[in-house]
Amino acid sequence: DTEVTQTPKHLVMGMTNKKSLKCEQHMGHRAMYWYKQKAKKPPELMFVYSYEKLSINESVPSRFSPECPNSSLLNLHLHALQPEDSALYLCASSLRQGSGYGYTFGSGTRLTVV
Amino acid sequence: DAKTTQPNSMESNEEEPVHLPCNHSTISGTDYIHWYRQLPSQGPEYVIHGLTSNVNNRMASLAIAEDRKSSTLILHRATLRDAAVYYCILQLNYGGSQGNLIFGKGTKLSVKP
Q1: Per the CB < 8 Å rule, is B43 touching A90?
Q2: What pLDDT digit, counting tens, does each position of B50-107 carry?
Q3: Given pLDDT bands bounded at 50, 70 and 90, which one contains residue B3?
Q4: Going by C-beta distance under 8 Å and a sequence separation of 6 or more, which residues neighbour residue A3?
Q5: Distance CA A63, CA A77 (A)
Q6: CB-CB: which of A43, A98, A107 is closest to B103?
Q7: Contacts of B49 in chain A (CB under 8 A)
Q8: How far apart (Å, rounded) are the C-alpha atoms in residues A34 and A47?
Q9: Which of A97, A101, A107 is the closest to B43 by Cβ?
Q10: Res. A112: pLDDT tops 60
């Protein structure tokens, strides 16, 4: 298995809803990442997990809450989002965190906040 | 963050080689050079990466200048499926951002039949 699987592919949520995005990989990668991509912009790094521990939080608002329950799974919990949070949310993984490792990206969850 | 400079857009003809340039004059000795591409409505896809020597794989070749301040991604025979945004990224080997991929604006490649 050489893929990163993200579910759902599309999500529409209201500003008072709570939802979760899921990311899964079975490549034995021990670093996992969340990126946010607005339309016609490059992806922006949000969070980095290394060996299931949060390594980097790029000053992301607390309405985004990541979780890494095991080495294969990464979640992003969403609560009280704003319309400007509508974007493509990308998950990625690499063998380890550190220089020299390539990333495998999922196809993303397209989120619309109404 | 380490910065790369790429042309905003390039055009190519189908079945011809494509050379995508990238300048990275602030590169340090142990920073890796990565290339990813992103097709419309998809996540980025790994293309190739290297440190000092030129690299080849089934998708592309990476030519790295001797002083490492620039590199070129070479697609040997462009197809319509190669139309995408190509990102050249420096992966730092030090500091708080070690190992992270920080995307710049990339080059939008169009391929004409």
Answers
A1: yes
A2: 999 999 999 999 999 999 999 999 999 999 999 999 999 999 887 777 888 989 899 9
A3: confident
A4: A25, A104, A106
A5: 8
A6: A43
A7: 100, 102
A8: 5
A9: A107
A10: yes
Nearest chain B alpha carbon to A96? B99
Residue type for B96, please?
G
What pLDDT score does B2 carry?
A: 59
C-alpha to C-alpha distances, A48 to A80, A111, B79, nearest whole angstrom = 22, 20, 35
Q: What are the tokens at B94?
A: 């030090």
Distance, CA of B22 to CA of B76 (rounded, Å): 17
Q: What are the respective helix, strand and coil percentages of chain A, to the nearest 5?
A: 5, 55, 40
Q: What is the token pair recorded at B38?
A: 């992103």
In this model, does residue B42 exceed pLDDT 80? yes
* Separation CA B92–CA A97 (nearest Å): 11
